[in-house]
Write a structure and sequence with these properties.
Shape: globular
Mean pLDDT: 89
Structural class: mainly alpha
Oligomer: single chain
Order of helices and strands: HHHHHH
CATH class: Mainly Alpha
Number of domains: 1
């Protein structure tokens, strides 16, 4: 049975989301932005979304990855590829893995 979350129920899921969160935090800090500043630039109602994302509790919505990348001064393709590796490692492996 298929789900919309490829890591649902898998033991490695939480650690992969945390790795994605650490990456976003590193990008934000490199850009010299606070969580509040980034949330304002992205037009978010609550800066706590940034905190939750950086803790691995949620993820960057796919339709907003380009916006996030641009505000973090990261090439959008590289940003999306890095997040895809954590959010959906099966698709990442098909596209970018050693056998691709």
């Amino acid at each position: 049975m298929s789900t919309t979350n490829p890591l649902q129920g898998r033991s490695e899921g939480p650690e992969l989301r945390k790795a994605a969160g650490r990456y976003v935090r590193e990008c934000r800090e490199t850009a010299g932005l606070t969580q509040l500043e980034l949330s304002k630039r992205l037009g978010l109602d609550y800066y706590t979304l940034i905190s939750q994302l950086e803790l691995g509790k949620t993820r960057v919505p796919p339709e907003r990855m380009k916006d996030w990348a641009e505000h973090l001064n990261v090439p959008p393709r590289a940003f999306a590829e890095r997040l895809l590796r954590s959010y959906d490692p099966f698709t990442w492996d098909l596209l970018f893995g050693a056998e691709a």
